[in-house]
Amino acid sequence: MFKNIFPSVPAPESKLYPHYLKAFPTMAGKTVAITGCTSGTGLVLAHICGGLGAKVMMLNRTSKRAEKALEQLQNKGVEAQWIPCDLLSFGSVRWAAEQLKTFCPQGLDVLCNNAGLMGIPDKASIDGFDKQMQANHLSHFLLTSLIWPLFEIAVSKRGEARIVNHSSGARKGRPLEARFLGRNGGNLGGDGFPGMGKWRRYQQSKLANLMFTYTLPDQIAQQRPKFAGKIKSLCAHPGPTNSGLQGKTAKAGGTRLLDQYILWTALKRAQSVEDGTMGIARACCEAVVESNNFYGPAVFRQAGPAELLPAERDVASETLLWRESLKATGLSNFFESLQAFVQ
Which residues span the domain enclosing 276? Predict the structure, then answer.
């Protein structure tokens, strides 16, 4: 353990949030599901969507914070429902998916795969995977697959559905490697000095978010062509944002000098949590979007407006991502939930 030697950084004021908020259309009649919305960008997004008239499904682990977040929305008159969901357990994800099917008979217009872990030690989830990869990508991949019929229902009734993934500026680095997607939790290493392993695992999980975004429309076009261009896959990254995720990293063991430096430099450049939410908010709420749209600050490691960014496609990583994610989650076909679904 290292004593924190860096000074505290005050929370920044919101600069961009009011401008974006005015431009979003009503979401009345739509249903939005958000993972990880007890605090941070997920909670801000829940308030935005609820304020625009959407029904909000909150997928959070069981906690007092989850209860408080639900109460906040309901006190504002938002139609909100909390579904307990622990992304570190595929069993919990499967249960939550069944609950979504029960509570969303008219389909799901938007799924925002927002929840995430950052910079935690090399420990295995209950399913045997790296905790960051399972929480940040694999469980979202599984959830999206399990509730696929809800997107198709939304298209049939309202013409469109969206899947929005939340990446990070930390995605940049090595191409995707299969070992990080495999059942290798606790054996990936790198926790010793200087402690870069946790950040490499985080980079891989955030790259996985973007590669999933890019390959999903291709899979839809091949296997569900009727819905190509109608079920849209989008992504965003917040840029440096004071979202509270940094504090969770410290509590989970991110106390080495390198960890402190990474977190401190990010917070020094950070924008407010409201401003950092604008990427996923654009993807979820804007009137017109296209598959593969990727939003976020344009300058690497700098805060700024959520701009439409150039594509960062990598066919080899996309192919690897799809193959290894199916294997990890035990899916024989991503769209297999359609076979058992009775409308």
Answer: 17-329
